[in-house]
Write a structure and sequence with these properties.
23 helices; binds (2S)-2-hydroxybutanedioic acid; Rossmann fold; metal-binding; binds acetyl coenzyme *A; 6-stranded mixed sheet
Length: 616
Amino acid sequence: MARPEYLLFDRDTKAIFWNLNRNAIQRMLDYDYLVGRSPSIVAIVAPTQSRKFDKFFYGTEEIMIPIYRSTTEAAEAHPEADVLVNFASFRTAYDVAREALNIPTIRTIAITAEGIPERLARDMAARAKQEGKWIIGPATVGGIAAGAFRIGNAGGTLENIVKSKLHRPGSCGLVTRSGGLFNELSNIIARNADGIVEGIAIGGDRFPGSDFLDHLLRFQKNPAVKYMVMLGEVGGELEYMVVEALEKGLITKPLIAWCIGTIAKHFGGEVQFGHAGAKAGADRETADAKNRALREAGALVPESFNDIPDLIRKVYEDLKAKGEIGEIEEPEVPPIPEDYDKARRAGKVRRPTHFICTISDDRGEEATYCGVPISEVVEKGYSIADVIGLLWFKRKFPKWASDFIDMVIKIVADHGPAVSGAHNAKVTARAGKDLISSLVTGLLTIGPRFGGAIDGAAKYFKMAKEKGMDPFEFVEYMKKVEKKPIPGIGHRIKSTKNPDKRVELLKNYAKENFPSTELLDYALEVEKVTTAKKENLILNVDGTIGVLLVDMFRSLGFSEAEIDELIEAGAFNAFFVLGRSIGFIGHILDEKRLAMPLYRHPWDDILYDVKRPEGV
Ligand code: ACO
Ligand code: LMR
């Protein structure tokens, strides 16, 4: 249903909000919920956002509001919206308003930005009047149609809104310049009368898009408005337009008017108040002169600002006595849901968490690794191994252990292109896949036969030693009971005749630096048994790392149960995963650098043994 000309907003008003200002949008929706109307914002305009919608609360429920790249696009999708809440910065607000003035479905534009050049503000105001549209602002919080529609942050907190009875219509039409005084006056009107029907803060600039008189004339026509309050201020001539209207009899409802800034005369010289327009350039522009003129024209002008409450009370009670204002039945106010974060900080709510983290914390100024800020990690020269110590095992390792881990990472970093993981990574890269996919295919080959035998080696050698099996017994046990190869024993190309240098390096380091190499010594006895059978059944690089990690953790004071838990969790294989990722990435980059084509395995390297089954 079409709204009468004098009404800018009602309970069905829908708005487009320009700028993804989550707080202001949420406040408008909170107001909607409070007054029991449907959500007033139907679209958001945010030209730089890639998202298509954002979520907000309406009461305790979440709703989705679509985001558009331009006001035109938003208005096309939402012709039901006739208000644009323009929260753009002062650099953009003019262009946004200009665009909106050309959109037929938009009738009212509220502009919050302060500092729009006066020339542009005047141009905007003139164009709006030409088009029969309304601009509220610039430099304003906007206003409220009580119980129907709130612009942005007008009225302050929800508690303040209820206290100032802005959640349901009263009988006063209010117009001020500033938002602060708008709140102050609505509160005074609520306490001394029955609140406002509508209140508009026209903004502090010298040339607002709509002025006192524009709104007072609307209020004059609005039967719900029984009297009006106008709060002007020193500077400018806008109040004289009201004086003239009073003189011409265009305003007949009681009008309580006051211009603040009467104090200016005590300062001597020109005084600039907060607002851009609040400066008396001529005698006519002083608050005193304007108050005098308003009084002479028939407005109800108090002696001082302090007398406003009594005057409002008197006007209200007179109108009530005449039967023009009735009793208002106070609507029920729903409980206002509190934001979880706020309520939690106030100690009012609690809820169980879904995740636990005991290794790092990013909530402070800087993230910490197990309590150590990253800057300290860098400045105090922590090595990669030290970082692993903090994040994987929550320990600061002594130098011998840290150096060992460093050595392990270096040693397992690569073993040429022929090993299964590197081969897979290369084939994948040549199939045109990206680095991460190629890396992952390489990593997926790490397992009991290739690179991932570290956990198994640690587990079985540790178990055998703990159970007191002699090396021969252990080899037999693995063959007959477990029926599987001993993890950490055997190599495709390394043997007693072609020893693995890496294994030598690890053993030598441990012998020189570890407090104890008990499990390594046991594994070397097992190796004697296996290499006696076959020369390639050496303690391989995985096996050596596995047993040495057990020796290391024992020396660091980890309990047997803790070590078993680490092995079970895959923590020992993790060293190979991390180290070999370096090599895989190298191979993938190599493929990309060489721009190698798709790989196809040669037929002559495959034994084809495909026979047609009988009867097929
Ligand atoms: N324990 C006991 N016997 C073994 C082991 C072992 N780990 N590995 C091989 N053998 C025996 C086989 O049973 C076979 O015996 P047989 O001749 O009596 O039948 C013989 O040695 C040859 O077996 P293959 O499987 O042909 O040996 P291959 O040289 O191909 O295997 C491999 C190499 C896959 C590494 C193998 O030794 C193995 O599975 N080892 C355990 C897993 C392991 O440690 N992998 C990590 C390797 S290091 C790395 O990837 C970084
Ligand atoms: C490796 O480190 O990848 C190797 O020990 C495996 C291999 O086959 O060389």
